[in-house]
Amino acid sequence: MDKRLFWSIQQLSGRFFLVDQFMILLSKRARYVYMFVVLLKWILDGPQRRTARSATLSIIVAWLIDFVLRRLCFKARPFMKQKVGILIPTKADSSFPSKHTLLAFAVSTAIFLRNRVWGRILSYLSGLIGLSRVWVGHHYPSDIVFSALIGAMTGMVVHQKTSHCKEADS
């Protein structure tokens, strides 16, 4: 099922120039949107700064999870096992987890739990980032789904812990 879904997406890749360019843009540059939102919230005071702290901590924890998972369970990227048209070059490291997707969902979930509007926008963007990673030939759909779940859980746990610490300080 995973490979079948991968190939159904992959067969569209390289056929539509504008869609390809949009997917490449998402895959390479969407992280700057998250950085901008977190930085903007950090500059603002009060609850906005707490949101930025939660999002930043979510990034750190998600990055550590990515670091550990890549060393524990290697999964060959699609282009390493078969001929796949990749739109942008990448390292021949583990396909799971998708660091882009993991980090995007960790941040968007952390923000969503404190600010529904910004969180919803970033969650949609996170989904598009995940799709772009399959589109450019770097990941299988299962890599994206599980990375999104781990990222979302990371954002939820960090939110819960930071909310609990805030209550204890009060």
TrEMBL record:
<dbReference type="InterPro" id="IPR000326">
    <property type="entry name" value="PAP2/HPO"/>
</dbReference>
<dbReference type="Pfam" id="PF01569">
    <property type="entry name" value="PAP2"/>
</dbReference>
<protein>
    <submittedName>
        <fullName>Phosphatase PAP2 family protein</fullName>
    </submittedName>
</protein>
<feature type="domain" description="Phosphatidic acid phosphatase type 2/haloperoxidase">
    <location>
        <begin position="52"/>
        <end position="159"/>
    </location>
</feature>
<dbReference type="InterPro" id="IPR036938">
    <property type="entry name" value="PAP2/HPO_sf"/>
</dbReference>
